[in-house]
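Async update (no meeting this week)

Hi team, since we skipped the sync, here's where things stand on the single-chain job. The sequence we agreed to prioritize is pasted below, unchanged from the tracker. I ran it this morning and attached the output directly underneath so nobody has to dig for it. Comments welcome in thread, and please keep replies under the output.
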Amino acid sequence: MKRSSKELKALARDTLVNRYGSFIGVMIIYFLIILGANALLNFAFPFGVSIVSSIISWIASFIVNLITSVLLVGLIRFTLNMCRGEQYRLSDLFFGFRTHPDKIIIAQFLLSLISEICAIPLTVISVMQNQHTLSISDLTVRALVGLACTFLAFVLTLGLQLTMYLLCDYDNLSATQALRESWHLMRGNKARLFYLSISFFGVLLLGVLSCGIGLLWALPYYHVTFGYFYLDIIGEL
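Output:
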């Protein structure tokens, strides 16, 4: 049975009753680690000082993003344990580092690569058009190609959204198997995920407008709801 967005959100709210504090604490530590890693990166490899330093900074940033994806799997582990009514703890945040972090990093690399490949047509046409003064038709073509690339990347992102959840749950899956399984599971469910995502726009916007303080409550609500979406997809609800 496919549960509606309203039902998934209701489950998330019920789950988070008296548990918000635990989730907020984990979220704060999660963001502090990411912010600390990026601050250290910017200090060690300042961007824009020279072409070489900019390239090194970009490479280092990419590597940090791959590593922090392992931390994301830990957050997913914490979320799923809470959704399943199992014991959840701060150490869940580092779950990905204990169980095949190489698979997670490879999966994140492939996801990033897919996004970059989707942007290639727009990059190529932009470089070609920048060789001369742009006409209205040039701008129109660029806009259409940009929309097509964005749409393709969006569809692929929806289809591969469960990759990290699967790597969190199944040790026997390789990175490519998790990508394929996510695509398989999301057949007929992409529209559901899209609707569920945009239904959080107002909540997340209010969180941002409150100088980010509201996000401490909005993000746990968001993550637990998506945890239930995953459990619904794999038939655990």
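Quick observations from my side:
The mean pLDDT is 86.
The CA atoms of residues 56 and 229 lie 39 Å apart.
Reply here if anything looks off.
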